[in-house]
């Protein structure tokens, strides 16, 4: 088993390679579709049909945005958390979906990337819904862990033989320091998710935006202690700024 790191539109793409199959550890951005196919066919010299599973750790544009398009092109199956309902449900969900795509474009701009079409369906059509502790279909050496906090349906993928765990956006690095992600909808669950990874004690932790880190180099106690106790979301930020502008207490 080998994990390839590919530079994506705003995140690192992780493509897992075996002799007879491939798996994406996340659904990428819509803008990453051709990058993934080019890497499979040109760099690895393999057929696009070798991609068997696309894991979607949560529904944000850089994790689910390319899933449907890649699945349609390659025939791969989409696997995701078995959380009830859709993340972007209702009117609030529609507004949040568009806001998240705009935020992704903002991040791309900060990275010097050209604007691209990032639109993707707000409702995921998954083939496999994975409960905590299940293995990924066709990849029995990978076990799923539910790590909610960032959203209600975040999952991690733990490679049992090598003791490496992909945690997507469980933490991000800003100015060299690991901090909680934004948004953070469920702070209590988030602390429990950090604790779960700490207790797992993997050899390394793979992040969606900051590569692979040695477990020993991550201060989980500090992260847990400093984690927010109230949600940090788009809507709370807008509400706070609105009240501040009107001097409302």
From TrEMBL:
One GO MF term attached to the UniProt entry: hydrolase activity
Family matches, as Pfam families: Lactamase_B
Domain Metallo-beta-lactamase: 10-209
InterPro entries in UniProt: Metallo-B-lactamas, NDM-1-like, RibonucZ/Hydroxyglut_hydro
Family annotation (SUPFAM superfamilies): Metallo-hydrolase/oxidoreductase (SSF56281)
Alphabetic keyword roster: Hydrolase
Domain of life: Bacteria
This protein's name: Zn-dependent hydrolase
């Amino acid at each position: 088993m080998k994990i390839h790191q590919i530079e994506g539109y705003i995140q690192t793409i992780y493509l897992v390679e075996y002799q007879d199959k491939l798996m994406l550890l996340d659904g990428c951005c819509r803008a990453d579709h051709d990058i993934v196919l080019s890497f499979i066919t040109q760099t690895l010299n393999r057929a696009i049909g070798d991609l068997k599973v696309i894991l979607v750790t949560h529904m944000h544009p850089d994790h689910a945005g390319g899933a449907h398009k890649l699945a349609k092109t390659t025939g791969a199956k989409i696997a995701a958390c078995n959380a009830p309902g859709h993340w972007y449900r209702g009117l609030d969900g529609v507004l949040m979906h568009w806001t998240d795509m705009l935020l992704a474009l903002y991040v791309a701009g900060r990275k010097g990337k050209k604007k691209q079409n990032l639109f993707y369906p707000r409702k995921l059509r998954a083939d496999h819904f994975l409960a905590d502790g299940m293995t990924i279909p066709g990849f029995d050496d990978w076990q799923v862990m539910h790590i909610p906090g960032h959203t209600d349906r975040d999952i991690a993928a733990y490679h049992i033989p090598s003791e490496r765990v992909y945690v997507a956006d469980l933490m991000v690095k800003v100015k060299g320091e690991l901090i909680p992600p934004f948004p953070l909808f469920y702070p209590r669950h988030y602390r429990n998710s950090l604790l779960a990874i700490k207790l797992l004690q993997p050899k390394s932790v793979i992040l969606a935006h900051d590569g692979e880190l040695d477990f020993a180099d991550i201060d989980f106690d500090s992260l847990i202690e400093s984690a927010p106790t109230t949600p940090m979301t788009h809507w709370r930020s807008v509400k706070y700024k609105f009240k501040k502008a009107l001097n409302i207490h």
